[in-house]
Amino acid sequence: MKIGYPCINRTIGCTADRTFRLKSYSESRLIETVENNLDCLLQILEFNVKYNIFFFRITSDLVPFASHPINRFDWINHFQNLFENVGSFIHKHNIRISMHPDQFIVINSPDEGIWERSRAELVYHTQVLDALELDSTARIQLHVGGVYGNKPASMERFALRFSQLPASVQSRLVIENDDRLFTVADCLNVSTITGIPVLFDTFHHSVNNSGETVEQAIALCAETWTMKDGLPMVDYSSQAPGERKGNHAESLDPDHYSTFLKNTQSIDFDIMLEIKDKEASALKAVSLSKSDIRFLN
DNA sequence: TCACGTCAAGCAGAT
DNA sequence: ATCTGCTTGACGTGA
Asked: How far is the CA of A177 from the C1' of B12 (A)?
């Protein structure tokens, strides 16, 4: 079991997701920003290793406008050395990496334009992981997408579109249950058709499920991950006390977390803490997990 | 230096 | 018809 947090470190004072406005686009601005972002990414990973955090989600904003038509710069070759440098650090310390394209990436949209842009953005995410020379355990997590008034048809369209993606992208994708539309059961159905592993999100499951317990759901998801996919990835968070249903907690709830570990102890996985205070909660989790046999492995 | 309107992109439910 | 939450910040203009 590895413990991780997404994208941002609030302790070390740099950001790996610096960007700028489309109107301000220039090649020099892009180069300057990506240099900063890659440099900061390495700093974050160094911080993580120092504190026994070996799972990390790389921000989608690492290369701003990477899949936008305005960007015709060959950033992969230009930054090849920097990517390899970060990648070798990841290898050396056996860090697990994920990425999570944001809500605009919807491959099952009936709108061809949205599909085209989504495909381009997935290619970009794949290019980042490939430039880092990461193996097939480094994954891109995606939701199934929209329902458009017909869930079975939308799931079938997802499978069709998946089959039309480049093989390099296909081998990186995993699908995640969401909080409103596609449950674990839906994702498992899509997985049966496509072979895509299912990433279990605990919080989404708590607000959108088909009656399975967490233990049942996580076991079913785990079965969709093969050796080459690596350990199953799990997104973990809990309800913010007193806030609107669905809001992520500000900080790790030690009791909730310990109970979750106990309830899932028969399965090993890597856990991504989607909690607002980022690395602070990861540090708490590392300390709480030290008595867990999976963490010691 | 600071305040604050806005930022590439989508969906679905609420108002 | 328009706004809001997803992830929440931070860019950058105007004063």
From this structure: 16
DSSP code for A239: B
For residue range A30-69, what is the model confidence (pLDDT) as tens digits? 999 999 999 999 999 999 999 999 999 999 999 999 999 9
Helices A214-222 and A184-194 meet at what angle, rounded to 10? 10
What residue type is A274 in one-letter code? E
Tell the residue number behind the tokens 């390099």, with chain if given: A168
Q: What is the DSSP letter of A231?
A: S
Question: Is A207 in contact with A245 (CB distance < 8 Å)?
Answer: yes
pTM for this model (two decimals): 0.95
Domain range summary for chain A, segments of one domain joined by +: 3-296
Domain A3-296 coded CATH 3.20.20.150: yes
| Dist. CA A29–CA A115, nearest whole Å | 28
Length of chain A: 297
User: CA-CA-CA-CA torsion for A284, A287, A288, A290, nearest 10 degrees?
Assistant: 150
Q: Where are the alpha helices (DSSP H) in chain A?
A: 27-50, 75-78, 80-92, 112-131, 151-163, 167-170, 184-194, 202-207, 214-222, 254-263, 279-289, 293-296
Find the Å distance, CA of residue A268 to C1' of nucleotide B8: 39
Q: CA of A36 and C1' of B12: distance in angstroms?
A: 37
Identity of the residue numbered A111: D
Residues A242-262: pLDDT tens digits? Answer: 666 667 778 888 999 999 999
CA distances from A171 to A186, A226, A293 (A): 20, 12, 30
Rg (C-alpha) for chain A, rounded Å, is: 19
Q: Which residues of chain A have pLDDT under 50?
A: none
Strand nucleotide closest to residue A111 (CA to C1'): B10
Contact A251, A280 (CB under 8 A): yes
